[in-house]
Amino acid sequence: MLLGLGFGMLLPRVYLFLISSGGFALLFTYAAILATHIRFRKINGCPPEGKCQISGYPYTLISMIIIILSMPFIPGKASGLIAGFILVYLYGNKIS
Question: Within its chain, how far is the Cα of 22 from the centroid?
């Protein structure tokens, strides 16, 4: 952690890019999991016993999307967002 902090002080733009791209990856993955769960429950329904509703539905998914879309308005976060969208596009084309 001290090495990362040192690099952050020496190369603040690189450090900010790495942090913002990692944050995008985390938010995008969680939003994809939430969207998949919602679609799965719409197709298959709720199990006979148990609770199948996500806590905070649908506000959790909406808030994830709003946070991702607001990244360009935070100084230094736009580059991580652009890199994240490029990687999602590239990986999406490799899989299909």
Answer: 8
Q: Given a cut of 80, is residue 10 above it in pLDDT?
A: yes
- Residue-wise pLDDT for 36-86, tens only, equals 888 888 888 877 776 777 777 778 888 888 988 888 888 888 888 888 888
For the chain, the distance separating the N- and C-terminal CA atoms, rounded to the nearest angstrom, is: 38
Give the integer Cα–Cα distance in Å for 26 and 21.
9
Count CA within 13 A, CB hemisphere, residue 39: 6
The one-letter amino acid at 57: Y
Provide the angle, in degrees to the nearest 10, between the axes of the packed helices 12-44 and 78-95.
50
Alpha helices in 1-96 (DSSP H): 2-10, 12-44, 59-70, 78-95
